[in-house]
Structure prediction request, 300 residues.
Amino acid sequence: MPVIGFLNNASAGPAASLVAAFRRGLERGGYVEGRNVAIEYRWADGQYDRLPALTEELIRRKVAVIAATGGLVTAQAAKAATSTIPIVFIAGFDPVGEGLVASINRPGGNATGVSVYTTELGPKRLEHLRELLPALAKVAMLVNPDSLSTEVEKEDLGAAARSIGIQLLPVPARSEAEVERAFGDAVAAGADAVIVSADAFFTSRRQQVVALAARHSLPASYPWAQYADAGGLMSYGPTLTWAYEQIGDYAGRILKGARPDALPVQLPTTFEMVINLNSAKSLGLSVPPLLVARANRVIE
Prediction:
């Protein structure tokens, strides 16, 4: 029975629906966990410095494929550890510039996967907040200082904010306690709203993040629909479950003999905006009808 190594920088519980999506992708190729394929899971629980050791564990386990999920930091940990074991990844906006592949259509090497373009969507999410809050002057940005894409996100969003006269206030957090402190810092700095970066650690702590935004009466924009489903105000981004299904499908193809260098990196073709009107009501906000009309899904 072949073995797949599933590596993630966050925690198992909050990622259950994404693991289920990965399994659905595997099933497209006829692979069912426990029947004709085994999966070894390794979770860093937000401690990114554990990723190299966890990757080495999977290599010693002689896995046939490594599914490096959760973002660039996981993908690069896997890529640095092996040049022979096939890797399927979920990464950020520039897998070529990040050194994961030679090109989108011809990845080369031993890695391929999905690029979710989350970093480039920050300005769009800021635009949505501005539409909801015309008097918006200061926006806090929740970032993980351990994330390799943080500086790029800050630069892109900072430039977009300056162009419309909004001050960006980065608030860093890499642990549960620091997330709570970051929201307090945002309020103390006079933030009118908050944008949460697409880092997997925050996604795994989405219940805490959403609760803190509500407690501090901060309108918030999120990268994934999972936040809006958990009670967050609004989200905009590609569908995470699609990305996990896709790398599950790729893992199955590789088990059947496909070469990763022949599988092009997949890019999202649709982006979903979700608005939670219940959250808006609790914040005392009236969502403009045009914004509601553009939403792919509205939670009432």
User: Anything to note?
Assistant: The chain has a mean pLDDT of 94. The CA atoms of residues 115 and 267 lie 5 Å apart. Residues 240-255 form the longest helix (16 residues).
